[in-house]
Write a structure and sequence with these properties.
1 helix, two-stranded antiparallel sheet, extended
């Protein structure tokens, strides 16, 4: 029930931070992919023409895509290089969190914990001498699970 005289403004999406296990200085300007979904199996039952029964299938988390002007933390590049050079036997998976912050930049208002992540893609935006935009690097993390904290 709403409290009279108390405003309940929507949460702004521009204050957030990222924590990745054993990587302390990672900052990003954009985060996308906080999504989980569950497969649906449709089962038509013989003699029942009114509806189709929908069964629950596997659940999966979407990849998390982090964007930043320039990533300078060597730990992130080292982690990606371990995947590229190590093959499937040496994948170092890490846990972490995406944390929504209040307007003051200090108060935590929401947290989504991701588990068993590893960097599946690193990308640098195009260099174009005709453009004056900011160069961006993109780090995409494959995650096994996202849990609301």
């Amino acid at each position: 029930m709403a409290v009279p005289g108390k405003r309940n403004d929507p949460q702004l999406s521009h204050f957030f931070k990222i924590e990745i296990e054993s990587i302390d200085s990672a900052t990003f300007t954009k985060c996308a992919g906080l999504k989980t979904e569950t497969e649906i199996f449709e089962l038509p039952e013989g003699g029942n023409n009114d509806y189709v029964v929908k069964l629950v299938g596997q659940s999966r988390a979407s990849n998390i895509v982090l964007t930043h002007g320039i990533i300078t933390d060597p730990a992130l590049f080292k982690w990606r290089e371990e995947i590229v050079n190590g093959g499937t036997n040496k994948i170092k998976r890490r846990n972490g969190s995406i944390i929504a912050m209040a307007d003051d930049g200090k108060t935590e208002v929401g947290r989504w914990n991701f588990q068993n992540a590893w960097p599946v893609r690193w990308e640098m935006s195009d260099f174009d001498s005709r453009q004056s935009g900011v160069s961006c690097q993109i780090l995409e993390l494959a995650v096994e699970r996202i849990v609301k904290g």
